[in-house]
Amino acid sequence: MTKYKLTYFNFVALGEPIRFLLSYGGVDFEDNRIEWKDWPEIKPTTPLHQVPILQIDNEVLYQTIPICRYLGAKFNLTGADDFENYKLDNCVQTITDLRMKIEMVAWDKSSPQNFIDEKRAELLNKTIPFYLENLEKIAVKSGSGYLASSKFSWADLYFVPMIEYMNFMMKTNLLEEYENLKKVYENVMKIESIKNYVAKRPTQGN
Amino acid sequence: MTKYKLTYFNFVALGEPIRFLLSYGGVDFEDNRIEWKDWPEIKPTTPLHQVPILQIDNEVLYQTIPICRYLGAKFNLTGADDFENYKLDNCVQTITDLRMKIEMVAWDKSSPQNFIDEKRAELLNKTIPFYLENLEKIAVKSGSGYLASSKFSWADLYFVPMIEYMNFMMKTNLLEEYENLKKVYENVMKIESIKNYVAKRPTQGN
């Protein structure tokens, strides 16, 4: 039997879409949640000195989005055709762009507080609505209750934990005003395997 | 006949892998090279206020990597199986990570010169070798003369123009010491359609 081992911090963020995908796929994976204090020792053993990494038997996979796309293909969660696959990729990239913009502010430990406050306000009033309106329009167009394709896809399983992570960083519910994105979120959270995983996941460090 | 129109600056960077792919695919595309002075007017007409965008008949595609993967699928430049596709995605992501690290220094117009010099030295002595050694190992393992798969792929057509762009930013030939990556570069540049495109592309603003 194929052995899966995911190594990441005890945290949602980049590890969580992989956990969602493995849970959806019904894979009994080892969820190796490492502590910050152990990171200096683990770091040089990873290919790019970063996590998540996913070990599948003897192969070491790294880079979150490529891992997610691979698992998506494995679990039949791709789009119906090449153009739908483009639309999924496009949404995943757009979510990632937004996530990185938020991280730059949320994890900024060196700038003065008034600069950070200004940047947070800009995120809330301008950047986040701009990106989420783009995604909301795509969800309206798909009309499926899922993000970008005519059926449920790996992009949905990427979207939901990233929203959780961004909500955590911004300390608010970002989807409040986006009816269609909210529906995608709810539809994913309704899936039995995801519901079961979410019910039993550790709550600390969300 | 399907109409393709690529809109980007008169510059290599993010537009160039799309130009390489369209050239390889034998597509007679409109290469809409915009001037900086026209950008403020064009910007709000694009979905995420950024270029490149690729119009295919009435569809507007944006986000460079998703566009490249889509064209790769269209022109039969994907991997032999899901795992090879993962390896291509992984390389493309790693190249992108490196490119963004270089851009942060190369386009930094506000930091003091000694800070920028220090960061450039760190890139040259540490960051760039670290990433390129990772990619070199992958190219050695593929053993095909191409980046990550058993045959020529869209990742190769992404890799070469990104190297050109990073060479431009770092003002040096980054591949000098990487025999296998150099071979990938040369193999791509030998392809008839790429050779023809490169011979006739505008040289300014590389």
Average of pLDDT of chain A = 96
How many domains would you count in the coordinates of chain A? 2
Gyration radius of chain A, rounded: 17 Å
Give me the secondary-structure category of chain A.
Answer: alpha+beta
Protein chains sharing the most extensive interface: A-B, 27 and 27 residues
Poorly predicted runs of chain A are none
**Name of the top-level CATH class of the largest domain in chain A:** Mainly Alpha
**Cα distance, first to last residue of chain A?**
31 Å
In DSSP terms, counting alpha (H) and pi (I) runs of 4 or more, how many helices of chain A? 8
For the largest sheet of chain A, list the strands in their spatial order.
Answer: 2-1-3-4
Oligomer state equals: homodimer
CATH architecture of the largest domain in chain A: Up-down Bundle
Number of strands of chain A: 4
Q: What can be said about the biggest beta sheet of chain A?
A: 4 strands, mixed
Q: What's the order of the H and E elements of chain A?
A: EHEHEEHHHHHH
CATH topology of the largest domain in chain A: Glutathione S-transferase Yfyf (Class Pi), Chain A, domain 2
Describe this structure in words.
The structure is a homodimer of 206-residue chains. Chain A has 206 residues and is α+β, with helices and mostly antiparallel strands. The first copy, chain A, folds into 2 domains: 4-75 and 193-200, Glutaredoxin (3-Layer(aba) Sandwich); 82-191, Glutathione S-transferase Yfyf (Class Pi), Chain A, domain 2, CATH 1.20.1050. In chain A, 57% of the residues lie in helices and 9% in strands. The first copy, chain A, has 8 helices and 4 strands; from the N terminus they run βαβαββαααααα. Chain A has helices at 16-24, 39-42, 64-74, 82-106, 113-142, 154-170, 179-190, 192-200, and strands spanning 4-9, 30-34, 53-56, 59-62. Chain A has a 4-stranded mixed β-sheet with strand order 2-1-3-4, with helices on one face. In chain A, a hairpin with a 2-residue loop joins β3 (53-56) and β4 (59-62). In chain A, α1 (16-24) packs across α8 (192-200) and α4 (82-106) runs antiparallel to α5. The two termini of chain A are 31 Å apart. Chains A, B: Residues 2-79 form the GST N-terminal domain. Chains A, B: This is glutathione transferase. Chains A, B: Belongs to the GST superfamily. Sigma family. Chains A, B: It catalyses: RX + glutathione = an S-substituted glutathione + a halide anion + H(+). Chains A, B: Residues 81-206 form the GST C-terminal domain.
